[in-house]
Specification:
By secondary structure, this protein is an alpha/beta fold. The protein folds into three domains: about 180 residues, Helicase, Ruva Protein, domain 3, CATH 1.10.8; about 50 residues, no CATH class; about 80 residues, Beta-grasp domain (Ubiquitin-like (UB roll)). It is about 35% helix and about 20% strand. The strands form two sheets. Strands 1, 2, 3, 4, 5, 6 and 7 form a seven-stranded mixed beta sheet that branches. A hairpin with a 2-residue loop joins strand 3 and strand 4. It is flat, with a radius of gyration of 23 Å. Bound molecules: guanosine-5'-triphosphate and magnesium ion. The site of guanosine-5'-triphosphate has 25 residues, from helix 1 and helix 10.
């Protein structure tokens, strides 16, 4: 799964990316610090079932840290978008091609309103973050629409001759953008016009279809960054009143804490509401003060830096994904090599036992007989809808789990 970090310049996208991946990249208080996209691995955090089953696990596709499963996902941080980016303004739109391969987007907003529309610093409270949210939606929608429009006449002609369906034509046009057929079908269903005769669509129809398709295929969460600055709290309230899905965060604090933890100076766990200083003598008084300020102004006030929460909410709420553990041996919770709880799968809610078998391996799905819920030892049929934290053994005529 790929998550795109988007926003106008200088809002803290690279700080957010670096706070999650610990990849050192340039971060500066000016627009367009990032030019080439940065890609890296970040980890979702989910409570592992190893404690409940009282076993020592041997993760293969993930990491288990004291009962927390860290599930790798890919992040991409790109150059900032400015009004007109979809037409090629600023750094152009080549990086939009990169971003639009993502399955979900995190929009980093300077919620203190301390950067203008092009990312230049200004006094906190100057810029209205609601304008930033609306502008980004517009840029992405227009960019997507440009791609659809490129071939619009040909698509309409082909639909008229009925050689291929409208959905399939759109799917071909949008290939490589991680847009699935069911996204297109769902977006078309939302339309209150005749979807069988696209030649009759007005420009407005096309805009509303593209907006819907963007929302469905690239769901977006708002990381309300820079909560350490004045006006942030009031602006968060305004965004929430407008119905936006907002997570307050302080990327700068997360990056500082993660770096200090990496050096063994503190015992911070990403997402936690506190930390302890482990090596007070190694810290300068400035470093100590900075850490104390983060603790009192961010962690104690907001409950966490919000950065890990953004990532977890993106998967578990926005994309409605769940984690499931497949095993081969029901008693030992192991695979055929004896490794205990080796893999965890991140799958969409609604996946059936048989669908899950197909996700692991086509042959496992084809030969599906039934599954066992390891917790209850109950037999599960092919239509059973998996739940978050399920530990499952699949019986197949063709292949082992
Ligand atoms: N006060 C405050 N500053 C932050 C926070 N996060 C990032 N910054 C600062 O914002 C500035 C821009 O950070 P970057 O991470 O480079 O921003 P960006 O969005 O990647 O910028 P571009 O690559 O130019 O688009 C830097 O001075 C950061 O230190 C935060 O939570 N609070
Ligand atoms: Mg950057």
């Amino acid at each position: 799964m790929l998550v795109g970090v988007v926003g106008k310049p200088n809002t803290g996208k690279s700080t957010f990316f670096s706070g999650l991946t610990l990849i050192p990249i340039p971060i500066e208080n000016r627009p367009f610090t990032t030019i080439k996209p940065n890609r890296g691995i970040a980890y979702l955090r989910s409570s592992c079932v190893c404690h409940e089953f009282n076993v020592t696990d041997q993760p293969q596709n993930s990491i288990c840290l004291n009962g927390t499963r860290l599930i790798p996902i890919e992040l991409i941080d790109c150059a900032g978008l400015i009004p007109g980016s979809w037409r090629g303004k600023g750094l152009g739109n080549y990086f939009l091609d990169e971003i639009m391969k993502a399955d979900a987007l995190v929009h980093i907003v300077d919620v203190a309103g301390a950067t203008d529309e092009e990312g230049n610093s200004c006094k906190p409270g100057t810029r209205n973050p609601i304008t930033d949210v609306e502008f980004l939606d517009y840029e992405i929608t227009m960019w997507l629409m440009r791609i659809i429009k490129k071939d619009w006449k040909r698509i309409c002609q082909k639909v008229a001759t009925a050689r291929i369906t409208f959905e399939d034509l759109l799917l071909n046009r949008l290939s490589g953008l991680s847009i699935k057929k069911h996204h297109i079908i769902t977006a078309l269903k939302q339309m209150e016009i005749d979807v069988d005769t696209p030649a009759k669509w007005t420009e407005e129809d096309l805009v509303s279809f593209t907006k819907e398709l963007r929302k469905i295929s690239k769901p977006m969460i708002i990381a309300a960054n820079k909560i350490d600055l004045p006006y942030a709290e009031a602006n968060i309230k305004l965004l929430r009143e407008k119905g936006y899905n907002v997570v307050p965060c302080c990327a700068e604090a997360e990056l500082a804490l993660r770096r200090a933890a990496e050096k063994g100076l503190i015992d911070y766990i990403p997402g936690a509401c506190t930390f302890n200083i482990l090596k007070p003598k190694v810290l300068t008084s400035d470093q100590k003060n900075a850490l104390i300020t983060i603790k009192s102004r961010i962690l104690e006030r907001w409950g966490s830096t919000g950065v890990q929460e953004v990532l977890n909410r993106t998967f578990f709420n926005l994309l409605q994904m769940i984690v499931v553990y497949p095993v081969e041996n029901v008693e030992r919770l192991s695979n055929h090599d004896g490794q205990v709880l080796p893999d965890v799968y991140l799958i969409p809610y609604g996946t059936t036992a048989k669908g899950f078998a197909y996700m692991i391996h086509t042959e496992l799905g084809e030969g599906f007989i039934h599954a066992i819920n390891v917790r209850t030892k109950r037999r599960l049929g092919e239509g059973y809808i998996l739940k978050g934290g399920d530990v499952i053994k699949i019986f197949s005529a063709k292949r082992r789990t």
